[in-house]
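Hey L., structure's done. Input below.
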Amino acid sequence: MNGEKWLARALRSFQKTTDGLRSAYMALQEEMLRLNVELEERNRSLQRSLAEVQALKGYLSSVLESVADGVTVVDMEGRITIFNRAAERITGYDRREVLGKSYRDLFPVEGGEPPILETLMTGREVRGKRREVLTREGRKVPVDSSTAVVRDERGEKLGAVEVLRDLSEVKALEEQLERSRTLAALGEMAANVAHEVRNPLGAIGGYLELLERDMEAGDPKRRLVRKMAEGLARLDRIVTNLLTYTRPLTPDLRERNVKDVAEEALRFFELGCEEGVREKVRFSLEFSGPVRAYVDTELFQQVLLNLFSNAVQAMPDGGELKVKGYREGDWACLEVVDSGVGMSEEVRLRAFDPFFTTRAQGVGLGLALVQKMVHLHGGEISVESDLGKGTKFLIRIPALA
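Output:
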């Protein structure tokens, strides 16, 4: 009996222990289930946070790529870590060429450290400092530079950032404004001189006519008088050009087919050329359909005649003079192309400056007048040229629908 009692107690104890273990196991299962649910929720929350971070990173990257200013970031060792699209455009470098490279090696500064590295070392920020950046091709680009220290949320320094604003257009406009002021003053002075010169020129011309009239038909001195009259006529043309350049002009703009205007000007120019020129120079006119615009026929033909004359003078041994017309967007375009001697880059850049000429007998007002007349049509004129390869003048004026 004692053995049976002991066995019964053992069984009851075992049952009690088993029930406890079962309860503990069930509680453990419930806790595991709760932890799994909590873990899944945290995973979902973490995924949402990562997605938000990625979206924010993508947004900031898009903003960085969209800004017009160049942005460069360096780490604590001065190596480039960020280089946006505008920085590529300004410097000529692809970001794959610069990321991880030393800023100092790629963009050295004469006589000191680049501003971004000065800021990295000293912590002093730079605002609106004008300087030049050396491009990949070795060209110097004027920029406005601003720098700042990059820090994390705890205020620890991570590197430095530089923002570059390309000032090429600003500098070009400043130079153009300064040149315009100089030319305006020069033009005003030239106009005053022209008025003063024209009166005595007229008197001299009258005296020469009287002198020639009083000479015998066979008098050898008549030839000298004619030479004097020719020189006087040239002076009068110079004075007339000066007055035309300096005085305000009001164009008589009327709707015209640019092809008709150009064709008439070219035919008139050909008829006026010497026999030798017509034999050596080939003239051609090509239009891709009708091109209509508001044109002052007289002024516009004067533009073309000046360009034709320059082209022929640039082809002393003959060549080809082509006139091409076409429409490009809202512009009526006209090209005057020759196969002549061409221009150097220095001459090309100064081609439209008044009183600039490379010819011994030139005054330098022809192309200046051409540019003025094109501007009166609301248009623009540009020139492309290479020494020994010819020259192309491109005229663009607003086209009609």
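The chain has twelve helices and twelve strands. Residues 172-246 form a domain with the Helix Hairpins fold (CATH 1.10.287).

-- N.
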